[in-house]
Amino acid sequence: MKEYLVELTTAVPEDADPAEVDRRRAAEAVRAGELAAAGHLVRLWRPVGELRSIGLWRAADEAELYEKVLGTLPLWPWMTPTVTAVRPHPNDPGCVV
């Protein structure tokens, strides 16, 4: 699987029903757990004081990442992604290339 650094910024529409937002957020947590168990979501961070996330994700290719991984997130319709394909660096202390 290839690895991707993904930044997700979520903008909930102002006219969104609060109950729908709560439902999607709860479902998002469940789906993230499923994607982690399947090996797609490796790590997830939230920058301090910001409403965005940065994660390390795995997928066979970018098409799978968008269609079968990120696109299945309940909050996806409200998300703006920035995706960067990454590979191990020869000087990464945690990796032998």
Summarize the structure.
The protein is an alpha+beta fold and 97 residues long. The chain has helices spanning 18-37, 62-69; strands at 2-10, 41-45, 52-59, 79-86.
Instruction: Describe the largest sheet.
Output: 4 strands, antiparallel
Sequence of secondary-structure elements: EHEEHE
| Beta-strand percent range | 25-35%
Low-confidence stretches: none
CATH class type = Alpha Beta
Question: Mind telling me the CATH superfamily name?
Answer: Dimeric alpha+beta barrel
CATH topology, anyone?
Answer: Alpha-Beta Plaits
* CATH A-level architecture: 2-Layer Sandwich
Q: Strand pairing plus helix content: what structural class?
A: alpha+beta
Mean pLDDT: 95
Number of strands: 4
Structure description:
It contains two helices and four strands; from the N terminus they run βαββαβ. The chain is of the alpha+beta class and 97 residues long. The model has no long low-confidence stretch (mean pLDDT 95). It has one domain (2-86): Dimeric alpha+beta barrel (Alpha-Beta Plaits, 2-Layer Sandwich). A hairpin with a 6-residue loop joins strand 2 and strand 3.
